[in-house]
Write a structure and sequence with these properties.
Chain lengths: ~200, ~200
Amino acid sequence: MALREEILEVSKDILIQDGFSKMSMRRIARRANVTATSIYLYFKNKDDLLLALIEESINDLKNALQEVVDPGKDFIQQLEDMARAYIRFALDHPKEYEIIYMVRPEEMPKYPREKFNEVRSAYELLAGIISKGKEQNLIEVDDPLISAYTIWAQIHGVVSVMLNKRLDTRIPREKFTDQAVDHIIKGFIIQKTPA
Amino acid sequence: MALREEILEVSKDILIQDGFSKMSMRRIARRANVTATSIYLYFKNKDDLLLALIEESINDLKNALQEVVDPGKDFIQQLEDMARAYIRFALDHPKEYEIIYMVRPEEMPKYPREKFNEVRSAYELLAGIISKGKEQNLIEVDDPLISAYTIWAQIHGVVSVMLNKRLDTRIPREKFTDQAVDHIIKGFIIQKTPA
DNA sequence: AACAAAGGTTAACACTGTTAAGTAAACAGT
DNA sequence: ACTGTTTACTTAACAGTGTTAACCTTTGTT
């Protein structure tokens, strides 16, 4: 059973150091001092292995977010903290973040629905915060879950543009993230004092 | 020279119908009634071919956006039209949209910088609209280009969550996009009348 | 007629994911 | 102590991959 963990570790190393295209069964096996076929004793196929890696990464992200949650803080501050934690995680562990969104679902129809529930719990972390804001009438929200997804999606977009190096070189990263976070949050807040 | 176009067309067909993993040089060649090596007469390698496909898709997206631009319309309406046109394009041509963001830059360091300039022109389409809003003091903007990227990123995130089937099944797609567009735009607008 | 370029081809190399079949060691039951 | 079975792995093979070097034809030019 130790080999399973070894395979996961080696796979992740290769993925991070050498890139996705270099992550072949034989290469993984070689670095784990077994043959490629041994991997199939612990994973149904390559997709299944990839899935396990995705799961790990999702958990890491979830933990990074969980760490930053502080119910004592002001509501808007909480939203901002989470957004920034998310962005920081993605920029600090770009490969790990990429893994999460790497699966092209059309090519992986076997992707088990229930696996996504672990991501869901992260959404619900955010939805919880939003619900509180709603109670305090600080925020204009219909369904907190939808709002959580909306915020999530927007942040993911911001991050993904940066990770894919799609950002104009003339734009400083920090200014971009600052403005993005600012706008995303403002999109939800009820502004009581017009500028 | 006609073969080059034939290859592009066949490649796109395979990519859309059979998925990325099935898009092999030999399969493309077979369907174009040539041998795989012939492709190398027109494209340096597979990445180069993929790049050409990306370029095509970007242009299609750009055209879809261009169609919707109408300077006669109200500024906020223009923003919304563009956002909706973008989302519609992505949802109507998911594979084509995916192609645009398919490149994993780490694995494709040869990606020529200047190619991105064509995307840039699309950003500048958006930046132009934003500039007008700034002049009219309808919008709170520092640098229109940054804002254009921010909006773009947010919309991309929204779209990408849906395309990757990451959206909670309990959430109706339309409600999600409506709310997303609403919030993204509101994040930029100076609200004069608090609710 | 001779030469060169254009537009292809065949054969091969070193890889890929995956499967069927085999092996060798550890353990369990009688 | 002899079976039988399970566990953990290996070897060999299949069909496919991207890519290159070398080789043909056909076409056009001088």
